[in-house]
């Protein structure tokens, strides 16, 4: 297939924000490399994206596994695929008190949210800088700006994502490569099921959850304009602004009240 815009490589493209982003890229005639753990699910989404007349390559990899992340980089390189855009969407959380949560599960989440993102960003950033062209979108969160009782590790990983994105942006400011952080608030996706978080107060209030399509559009527009970061949604912008001028202890208490189980 004629490659007019190169490829957008998107992790977590089979559901949620990643899926909505993939739809936007396909509509805008980007070819896609979609990555996930379920090949059948990937192929189903690939068939849908191909209806836009673009090439779609699905690659089954478990990004919790560091070796498979490196294998992904090697496979893309061995197939001579030009990645114009990297979207690090895949991420997961775990709900509960830090002292009670399974450390092995938390370490796997760190491997995914931090390890995989770091490996993929470094690999494709090098290629983009050598060409002096490319874009990277990293999924941070408004969680990156606040302490997160009941989701301590998740908030910590997202703080890393925001920090490294802003640091890299400064390092590459004299190139034509851009890197953007997308900071949504709670979104109506399968994230909360995977995190075993259905008992949380913040999830019980469905009106507080954003539409993933709206979040994806905000992120896509920010990426294409080269914006450094975008907080998706007016309410979330207010939340971040308030947290910036509120003592961390107070913010932590507020987050504890929002995120603790409804029966607490």
TrEMBL record:
<protein>
    <submittedName>
        <fullName>SDR family oxidoreductase</fullName>
    </submittedName>
</protein>
<dbReference type="InterPro" id="IPR002347">
    <property type="entry name" value="SDR_fam"/>
</dbReference>
<dbReference type="Pfam" id="PF00106">
    <property type="entry name" value="adh_short"/>
</dbReference>
<dbReference type="GO" id="GO:0016491">
    <property type="term" value="F:oxidoreductase activity"/>
</dbReference>
<comment type="similarity">
    <text>Belongs to the short-chain dehydrogenases/reductases (SDR) family.</text>
</comment>
<keyword id="KW-0560">Oxidoreductase</keyword>
<dbReference type="InterPro" id="IPR036291">
    <property type="entry name" value="NAD(P)-bd_dom_sf"/>
</dbReference>
């Amino acid at each position: 297939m004629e490659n007019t815009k190169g490829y957008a490589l998107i992790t977590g493209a089979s559901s949620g924000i990643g899926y909505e982003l993939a739809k936007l890229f396909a509509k805008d005639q980007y070819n896609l490399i979609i990555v996930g753990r379920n090949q059948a699910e990937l192929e189903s989404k690939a068939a849908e994206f191909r209806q836009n007349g673009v090439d779609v390559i699905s690659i089954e990899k478990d990004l919790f596994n560091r070796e498979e992340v490196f294998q992904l980089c090697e496979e893309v390189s061995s197939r001579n695929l030009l990645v114009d855009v990297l979207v690090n969407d895949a991420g997961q959380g775990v709900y509960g008190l830090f002292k009670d949560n399974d450390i092995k599960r938390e370490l796997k989440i760190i491997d995914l949210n931090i390890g995989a993102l770091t490996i993929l960003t470094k690999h494709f950033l090098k290629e983009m800088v050598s060409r002096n062209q490319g874009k990277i979108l990293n999924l941070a969160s408004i969680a990156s700006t606040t302490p997160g009782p009941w989701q301590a590790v998740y908030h910590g990983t997202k703080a890393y994502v925001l920090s490294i994105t802003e640091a890299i942006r400064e390092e590459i400011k004299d190139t034509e490569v851009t890197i953007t952080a997308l900071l949504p608030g709670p979104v109506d996706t399968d994230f909360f099921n995977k995190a075993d978080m259905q008992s949380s107060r913040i999830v019980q209030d469905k009106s507080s959850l954003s539409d993933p399509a709206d979040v994806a559009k905000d992120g896509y527009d920010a990426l294409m304009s080269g914006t450094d970061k975008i907080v998706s949604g007016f309410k979330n912008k207010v939340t971040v602004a308030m947290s910036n001028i509120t003592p961390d202890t107070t913010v932590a208490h507020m987050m504890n009240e929002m995120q603790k189980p409804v029966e607490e």
